[in-house]
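Sanity check

After download, print the first record. It should look like this:
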Amino acid sequence: MQNRLRLLRTQRNWSQAELAKLLSVSRQTINAIEVGKYDPSLSLAFKIAKVFRYPIQFIFLPEENSMFERFTAKAYRAIVLAQGEGERLGHQFVGTEQILIGLIAEGNGLAAKILKSTGITLEAAQTEVEKIIGRGTGIQGVEYPFTPKGKQVLDFAVEQSQKLGHTFIGTEHLLLGVLSVSDGVAVMVLKKLGVNLQNLWQEVLTEITSLGIPAATISPNRNFIREDDLSESPPDFTSGEISARFCAFLFSWVEPRQLGHIIGSRSGFQLPNGDIVAPRISFFSRERLKRVPRTYPELVPDLVVEIKSAFDRLISVQQIIQRFLDLGVKVALLIDPDSQTVSVYRPSSGVTVLGNGEKLTVSELFPEWELVVSELWPPVFD
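Expected structure tokens:
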């Protein structure tokens, strides 16, 4: 059975032995599951899902074309938080109300931003939900199945994604799905909070339109390379030199201090299903990658750097950066030779754009290292 166990384990920096201890199984069992030589029992699969707090359908893939294959990382996160809300209130199910709470609690997705703009807070929504459905038995389950109306939310989310011509299901589609179940508890909660449902629906569509068609955040078993991806465009001479200059500047700082590994020339890392993801430049800290493998590390980099070539659309490169962040990259840099800027992306904050004369720093990975942006550009000789 295909699974994402290795990806989830390495993202948390757990060894096979550490995970095995958490699950009370042998390390050999974990290895056999990860390589697909052993299918876990249903009880063990549920236990794994509970440890990682991801839907069991996300970790184990019995059907190649499962709906959950198309969920973005933020949409998955919202569903995980919805399950957590069911657990918090002692209900062993996920209905429209839990999905609404999950969308708000996720915090960074388009749905969370739109709901926040209407004045809805997590605490207010949780209070209204508890008033309507009360608290359950408090007995924790190993799985939190969707109620019939909860399943309707997912079905409507898929339908809305298809209508919009999207190849993915994001938090915005889930919010449209919530609004589509007019007799669900979530809609009752929104009305109690004074939300105009028609206005909210229109605001979601307006936000989607204003962004164009946003890129699908990569799910770990989907091929990362698409027609408009940077990896399909040959690097031009300028971006090639910028890549070499950046690697030289950073290498001269990292190597003497033995901070980790800097990888260039589009060398990639491997996802659990064998797909290779290849940033322009990447950095792996010594704590996370102690020994360089002969082929590809099965580990998401700490830092990725993309450089816009003359053949790329800026929005395509920005979309690639976002997909790297959703995979777990700590910091991503987008170097744009056309505008002579460096954009710094972090999952927990907005984008910082630096121009000539300003200094680039990545203190969480390279303490005291700094680079003046203007030093990246190729020199002009007389």
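If your output differs, re-run the checksum step. Summary of this record's structure: Confidence is low (pLDDT under 50) at residues 213-233.
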